[in-house]
Design a protein that fits this description.
It is a single chain. The chain is an alpha+beta fold and 221 residues long. The protein has a single domain, classed as 2-Layer Sandwich (Heat Shock Protein 90). It is 54% helix and 19% strand. It has a five-stranded mixed β-sheet. Strands 1-3 form a two-stranded antiparallel sheet. Helix 1 crosses helix 6, helix 2 runs antiparallel to helix 3 and helix 4 runs antiparallel to helix 6. It starts with 7 loop residues before the first helix and ends with a helix.
């Protein structure tokens, strides 16, 4: 396996494309709804369209708030983030979707890279269950030394080279929205001094994040 290092400009471009990929759908629905309102006189239909616009605006806002915390600076270097804020944006992202979020993390201040890692792994877990299911986020201890994000659903799986990208050992450079998501999560894990491990069966995919020191000791035994 070869670990690839993307050019910073390519990484920035692909991450921007990833965010646009998430936001374009509800924004497009808002534009289409406004165009219909310009031509529609039926009161019942206008009410239906206004409801669609409202829901699409809420969805766009939820996705932007999530992306701001998952990809943005979210404070200065070395800053901590309240996991309660992470839960709020995660629940907002999955509200109304076919996927249920089971958040087993107490409200506490956690290094921002670990919080960003959790949120990025939530997105990857959601992609593993396109038909819907349950995403579980579990913290092993208050020190956040080990965390797990699990996707449970029919035929749950990580497609393509996502496992290799998460581990930092892909066969090819990332080329699309899902690839860059996994590649970026691997970079965030490295910045947090954690190692990602993927396990999967027919209806379950689990991504474990453990401290690099713990993994090194286990491999030495």
């Amino acid at each position: 396996m070869t670990a690839f290092a993307l050019d910073p400009l390519d990484l920035a471009a692909l991450l921007c494309s990833r965010v646009c990929h998430d936001v374009i759908s509800p924004v497009g629905a808002i534009i289409n709804g406004l165009e219909v309102l310009d031509e529609e006189n039926d009161a019942e239909m206008r009410g239906f369209v206004l409801d669609l616009i409202k829901k699409s605006a809420e969805q766009a806002s939820a996705r932007l708030q999530f992306c701001r915390l998952a990809f943005g600076a979210a404070g200065s270097a070395g800053a901590s983030i309240d996991t309660g804020d992470a839960e709020t944006v995660a629940r907002g992202l999955f509200c109304g979707e076919r996927t249920e979020l089971a958040w087993h993390v107490p409200s506490l201040l956690m290094p921002k890279n670990k919080v960003k890692l959790i949120l990025n792994l939530c997105l990857i877990a959601a992609a593993a269950i396109p038909r819907g299911g349950i995403i579980e986020v579990t913290l092993a201890d208050a020190a956040a030394e080990r965390l797990t994000v699990t996707a449970k659903g029919t035929n749950a799986k990580l497609v393509g080279q996502l496992p290799g990208l998460l581990a930092g050992t892909p066969d090819l450079p990332p080329s699309g929205p899902q690839d860059i998501q996994a590649y970026y999560a691997g970079l965030v894990a490295k910045a947090a001094n954690m190692v990602l491990t993927v396990t999967a069966d027919a209806d379950r995919v689990s991504i474990d994040a453990e401290p690099l020191s713990v993994v090194a000791i286990a491999e030495a035994l």
